[in-house]
Amino acid sequence: MEPGTIDNLSILYQSSDFIVVNKHWDIRIDSKMWYETLTLQSQLKYRFPELADPDTYYGFRFCHQLDFSTSGALCVALNKAAAGSAYKCFKDRLVTKAYLALVRGHVSQSRMTIRYAIGKNTTEGMTHMMCIDGTEGERLPRPACAAQTTWAVLGGADPPPDLVAGCENPKPCQSELIVLEHGSYSGDPVTKVLLQPLTGRTHQLRVHCSAIGHPIVGDFTYSHKKDSSPYRMMLHAYYLRIPTGKELIEVCAPDPFVTTMDSNWVPHHVAHRLDETIQELKDKMMQKGEEEESQEAVLGGGGEEALSEAKSPETEEQRARCEQWLAEWALE
Questions:
Q1: Partners of 261 in the beta sheet?
Q2: Is 67 a catalytic residue?
Q3: Where is the Pseudouridine synthase RsuA/RluA-like domain (predicted)?
Q4: DSSP code of 90?
């Protein structure tokens, strides 16, 4: 519960090519604002000044992103070759991530698959948010001008369509939810869940939890600005697996949602044990890998190309991120 400082960076994994940190919940990865001096970037430079690369904008090659309020495992590549191998894993969807969260209310189903498509909210004042497909647009206030008067004179009951905002360019998204424990937080009913994003849309887990009526505890944005009392948003990147060609990166960032860490959280009933659930996830990945190897062997020389075509297409967001990586970190 202590705030982050420049010298309290927690390292989960380190090799000559990668560092995996346990990002603090109140620290941004990087910032262009002069007044935001405490970032993960500055923590890394303080801890590993000799590893900072002057050829990159941020000094370090962050392999993926976590929101400001989200804690947990975050991988950093230390050279171009490592960044390239990580990029390939993300591009080929070989990376596995699982998050822990406390959500409002008691989730009735022990497991569920959430499949709401997510797009950008274009409603004025909400453009920093995402929304699910089908979200009803809100009327934007029309400026007091001659056009408004003309519309009224013409008898228009509603403003023109371009004055209505809604969910822009929604993309298919899928998240898996497993209930770990039912309990309470500061006396209110909450559920501890394991979340696995099977796609990578911005704010995906936060939006999906809100969409099923169980917003994440402390998520001020997606609780319609109501959930402001907890000291943080209760979302944590717990498990990360990146099978690069040279090494397997597999880490768990310690669970912060335990009573010894936060006495406001009181579990009442265990539905699934965390260690068993993670092992189940690992077993599924192993089985999937074996099936793909078997399929590739059957397909022969064209197996890799066929398997690549069989995979779902990248989202525009994923493609843009990969292009950004290639521009700065591609192998020479």
A1: none
A2: yes
A3: 18-211
A4: H
